[in-house]
From TrEMBL:
The lineage of its organism: Bacteria, Bacillati, Actinomycetota, Coriobacteriia, Eggerthellales. The keyword ATP-binding does not apply. It comes from the Bacteria. Its main location: cytoplasm. It catalyses: 7-aminomethyl-7-carbaguanosine(34) in tRNA + S-adenosyl-L-methionine = epoxyqueuosine(34) in tRNA + adenine + L-methionine + 2 H(+). Signal peptide: none annotated. Belongs to the QueA family. This is S-adenosylmethionine:tRNA ribosyltransferase-isomerase. Keywords: Cytoplasm, Isomerase, Queuosine biosynthesis, S-adenosyl-L-methionine, Transferase. It is found in: Cytoplasm.
Length: 368
C-alpha cells in the first residue's frame, strides 16, 4: 500500500467555492460498498435509501470564529492569529491561553513581547493576543524543532465581559485553504444542528441536512443522534510519506454521550443500521468501541488518534454519508477502508467525469 494509491486527478474548477443554492438540493453519488454500483441522485433523495429503525449519527460541533485579523502593537503591521485549541483551563472569564498559528511568523515570536490587537466594527480594540511561548511537541503535528510548524501559545485578553463576546466581535469563521475569496453568509459553513463552538473546521458531510429533511426522516422513524468531535486544521493535510502507515495522524477530542450509545444498542437489537454522517462521526464512534468488552462505551472529551486504513474492521458503522475528499489524505484512506480502494477510486473518477462539485462546499456521497 502506497500513499499514491489514494491520489486522483482533481481539476481545480471542480473545487466548490460556495455552497449549493439549497443545502439538500446538491448532488449525491450513492455507492453500494459491496459491489461498487453507483447511482446519481439529489441529496434529499437519501430518504429513499433509509429504512424505519435506521439511526443517523452526526457530529454536532460548531466552528469557532477562530480567524483573527489584527495589527501588531507598536508597528501597526497586519497580523493574523488562528485559534487551534484552548491550552489548559481559562485563567479567568476575560483571559485564557490558546494554541495558535500566526502570520507573519518571523515577527510574532515568543520572548519578544509581541502583541496583536483586534478591533471591532466600531474600531475599538476588543481583544489582544500576546505571544508567550512555543507550543509543546505533540502528535498533532510532529516536528523536530519543538515549534510544531510554528504553533505558539498566546494569551488572549479582553476588557469586554467575556472572551466569548470578544471573539464574536472580532473573529471570522475559518474556511479551508482551497476556498478562495468566499464572501457569502458564514453561517452556511455551519450545520443546522451545530451547538458548542469547539472546531476549527466544519464537519462538512452534515452541511447538506436541513431541519425539514431531518424532521421528515424522523417521521419515517429514522432516528437521529449526535456525537461531538473537535475538528482540527490537520483534517486538510495530505499524507507526505510514501508509506501511509508511517504517517502520524493528528489527535482530536471527541464525546459520545450515553444516549447515543443506547440508541446504537437499540438499533442493533431491532436490526437497523448505524449510519455515520461524516468521517468525524466515524472516528468518534469507532474510537468509543471497547474492544475488550466488545461494546460501544460513552466517552467525555477523550483524545483519539484513530487512523483508519484499508483492512480496518468497522465495529459500529454500517453506512456513511460523506463529502468528496482531498487526494492523498487520511480521509481518502478512511473511505477506502469502508469499501475497497478500487471501488472508491472508481467512484471518484465517475464524480470527476460527471462534474460533481468537490470538497467542503461540494456535493455528497452515500456509501451504503
Amino acid at each position: 500500500m502506497k500513499t499514491s494509491d489514494f491520489d486522483y486527478d482533481l481539476p481545480e474548477e471542480l473545487i466548490a467555492q460556495k455552497p449549493a443554492a439549497e443545502r439538500d438540493g446538491c448532488r449525491m453519488l450513492v455507492m453500494d460498498r459491496a459491489t461498487g454500483a453507483l447511482e446519481d441522485r439529489i441529496f434529499r433523495d437519501i430518504a429513499d435509501y433509509l429504512r424505519p429503525g435506521d439511526l443517523l449519527i452526526a457530529n454536532e460541533t460548531r466552528v469557532m470564529p477562530a480567524r483573527l485579523l489584527g495589527a501588531k502593537r507598536g508597528t501597526g503591521g497586519a497580523a493574523e492569529v488562528f485559534l487551534l485549541r484552548q491550552h489548559g483551563t481559562p485563567l479567568e472569564n476575560r483571559s485564557a491561553l490558546w494554541e495558535v498559528l500566526v502570520r507573519p511568523g518571523k515577527r510574532l515570536k515568543p520572548g519578544t513581547g509581541a502583541v496583536v490587537d483586534f478591533t471591532d466594527a466600531a474600531g475599538n480594540v476588543a481583544l489582544s493576543a500576546e505571544i508567550v511561548d512555543w507550543a509543546a511537541p505533540s502528535s498533532q503535528s510532529a516536528s523536530t524543532d519543538g515549534a510544531q510548524k510554528g504553533e505558539r501559545i498566546a494569551r488572549l485578553t479582553t476588557q469586554l465581559p467575556s472572551l466569548d463576546e470578544a471573539l464574536h466581535a472580532v473573529g471570522h469563521t475559518p474556511l479551508p485553504p482551497y476556498i478562495k475569496d468566499y464572501s457569502g453568509d458564514e453561517e452556511l459553513y455551519q450545520t443546522v444542528y451545530s451547538r458548542r463552538e469547539s472546531s476549527a473546521a466544519a464537519p462538512t458531510a452534515g452541511l447538506h441536512f436541513t431541519p425539514e429533511l431531518i424532521a421528515s426522516l424522523r417521521e419515517r422513524h429514522v432516528r437521529w443522534e449526535t456525537v461531538e468531535l473537535e475538528v482540527g486544521l490537520d483534517t486538510f493535510r495530505i499524507v507526505d510519506e510514501d508509506d501511509p502507515e508511517r504517517h502520524v495522524i493528528h489527535t482530536e477530542y471527541y464525546t459520545v454521550p450515553q444516549r447515543t450509545v443506547d440508541a446504537v444498542t437499540e438499533t442493533r437489537e431491532r436490526g437497523g443500521r448505524v449510519i455515520a454522517v461524516g468521517t468525524t462521526s466515524v472516528r468518534s464512534l469507532e474510537s468509543a468501541w471497547d474492544a475488550e468488552s466488545g461494546v460501544l462505551a460513552s466517552r467525555e472529551r477523550e483524545a483519539t488518534s484513530l487512523y483508519i486504513l484499508p483492512g480496518y474492521q468497522f465495529h459500529v458503522v454500517d453506512a456513511l454519508v460523506t463529502n468528496f475528499h482531498v487526494p492523498r489524505s487520511t480521509l481518502m484512506m478512511l473511505v477506502s477502508a469502508f469499501s475497497t480502494r478500487e471501488r472508491i477510486m472508481a467512484a471518484y473518477r465517475h464524480a470527476v467525469e460527471e462534474r460533481y462539485r468537490m470538497l467542503s462546499f461540494g456535493d455528497a456521497m452515500f456509501i451504503r
